[in-house]
Input
Amino acid sequence: MAVAGGGGETGRQSVIGRGFLERHHLCAWSSSTSTWIVVRRVFKATHGTSIPAGHFVARRLVDRLLGVPFIRQYEPRDREALYEVCLRTGNDGGDATGLYQVPTILGEVYIGPYLRLHPELAWVIDDNGSASGYVLCAPDTTAFESRCEAQWWPALRERYPLGSFPRDSLDEEVVGIIHDPERAATEFLGQFPAHLHIDITPEVQGQSWGTALISTLLDELMVRGVPGVHLSVSTANARAIGFYEHLGFTVLSHDAANTMMGKHIAID
Output
């Protein structure tokens, strides 16, 4: 489902009013975040066209004026902020600031390749002009891994050769990932070819933004005909696992370190 930003009604000049959407079961209202969750695919199927972009532009303008966070697609100016969000949530969901000699090194693994290869599948929570959360996705994990090997990892391996940092440092652990990135388990990729990463800063946690971000992504994957998506989460992060289970993800595999979860995407 696609998400329009929170905030009040845009008035009679809105291309599509809230009443219309509710009558046709095209949105759900969340009072906690003042967010519309809009099913674009249903609208397109019943009206032969996508929901006009002007409606969402108008809502974004209102949200900006009111200072209300809202979801929008990634823009190049967000890159530095997304690296910062990654760092602030990089310690099993906690703040990793100060734990790395190079603060951007986590983002080079978990943010950069997605922004380079699939910026069209990146959305952010815009909080007063700055990104305070994101969801990123590769729709075809196998193709993504191949493209990273050709287009992303070589420059990083040159910049960070093995042994760049002390052996027992977190930075060197990330360097090891750069030189030998983990490959997705192939037995799941037929049903769940896409994978996602999502992180949200503490300031906007607990306000349904995680649900809204994932709903936005799932809507787009459904339109693209992607049958399923998977993710990896720390096995120690029971709260995150419960959150994904609430959204319909199921455990595909797990060990002491990581739990793999997947969700089927209904395609007509």
Notes: The radius of gyration is 19 Å. The chain is about 40% helix and 20% strand. Confidence is low (pLDDT under 50) at residues 1-39.
